[in-house]
Write a structure and sequence with these properties.
The structure is a single chain. The chain contains 18 helices and 25 strands. α1 runs parallel beside α13 (270-295), α10 (230-238) crosses α14 (326-332) and α13 (270-295) packs across α14 (326-332). The relative contact order is 0.11. The strands form six sheets. Strands 4-5-6-9-10-11-12-13 form an eight-stranded parallel beta barrel, surrounded by six helices. Strands 14-19-20-25-22-23 form a six-stranded antiparallel sheet, covered by helices on one side. Strands 17-18-21-24 form a four-stranded antiparallel sheet, with no helix packed on it. By secondary structure, the chain is an alpha/beta fold.
Amino acid sequence: MRVDFVRSNGFALRRALLTTALCVSLPGQAFVAARAEPPRLQRQGTATQLVVGGKPMLLVAGELSNSAASSANYMAPHWARLKAMHLNTVLAPVSWELIEPEEGRFDWSSLDSMLRAARANNLKLVLLWFGAWKNSMSTYAPAWVKRDQGRFPRAELPNGQGAEILSTFGEQTLKADARAFAALNAHLAEVDRRDATVLMIQVENEIGMLPVARDYSAAANAAFAGAVPADLTAYLAAHRETLVPALKQVWEQNGARTAGTWSELFGQGDASAEIFAAWHYARFADSLTAAGKAAYPIPMYVNVALARPGRAPGQYPSGGPLPHLIDIWKAGAPHIDLLAPDIYFPNFVDIVNGYKRPDNPLFIPEANNADRPEVPANAFYAIGALDAIGFGPFSIDSVDGDPGALGEAYDVLGQLSPYILAAQGQGRMGGFKPRQLYDESLVYEPQTKVIGDYRFTVTFADIERPARTDDTAGAAAIIVQTGPEDYLIAGRDVHVYAEPVAGGQAGIDSAWEGRFGGDGAWSPGRLLNGDQTHQGRRIMLGHHFAIQKVRYYRYR
């Protein structure tokens, strides 16, 4: 297998990294490769789906707290609870310090234990590689890396002080991180290709520079004073009309030049410093990803810590794949399959719509702590409205004993998964929730979407309330078309009205509550009518997540 690096961020060793990756492949890998296809991404209409074992899969997921996966004893009671709350996937860290405690000696015991436990509970995994960086810092690097600043240089502040952050300009850092990451992937190819327990891998965690916009080490300063790489300027020129507005504005305000230094192209100050940081983080992560995929080509992504409004680069992790820097990362990291936002802010709808792009399928690997009331509604919106690959609230092990509304919502999503997957990218599905602003106020206007031959209007049961409450923040619905006049309508605290697109009026032929069993068979409950449909005027979903199977008809 040969992969060419045609881009550069200043390292001469990029081609050598793939040789390193291939050298750690294990003896049985070629035999194992013939037995099973690794997970992959594929297009369906306008959507991108994760395909596992030849079939699409929706990730009904949750992310463990940072230290949970380091102890098999801690995790032992949680696996069954996570399965019982209707997860099918767990996002779990794998740290460099645990798997390579001494340089060149790999210890897979913690990972292998996690694989066995996940399989025993019929759960899949997304691994989070805590390598050179985790939440900007480099605390998960092994001691032999952290203690050798000469070989593994730190990023520096303007006064020359070192930060607890490894520099992107450390050639040995990249080589060591890539070797470990490639070894991890080679191990998975050896022990997991048949089972495909591991579906995707996150490359590092919430990359970004703190507390200033960029690294000020001597190597970084020299690169900043030099020319912007031609690969980046070519991307900007080729994608000028579709660049994210903030980046396009900065570039065009400085003349939309295609040659020059970082300050000449992007101005003086933090804007150019952050774009510079983003490019070099992207190139590092891309090299890491390429080395990993050479050993085991499963989907890989980078996540991002978002910025609060009004904060300057460095007050948040500068240079990560933030909304205004997505195009820098797309230019600098072509091996990375998607950029994924970690969302802890109330304005969820606005954020996810910025990350759903033709070149970037939506995946939410980390969201508000799992006990927050809006979390289930956010999952319904991301999946129903934007064809998300999956959704994973953070610290899922803290709520698995009493999952509440999230457990209800995940139960419903699990039942609906075959129908959701069939509808993704086909214009046969919609997702709805009140739009919440950054200040936590809610926008209650009814939401309308055409699905099939009907126009649906969704209102929220507590529409008269002007303020956010736990109840109002949790309202949500998914509508999936299953036939010409047949729909599955699921959610909580919503009213759903329908009218024919071609004119006339819509009547409710039947509305059955019920659930899908493990074999996919529908088990009907009550046939809803009378007060339960407002005398045939609307579908009403109460305060608990539920599914109704609805058939409409038309009349003049």
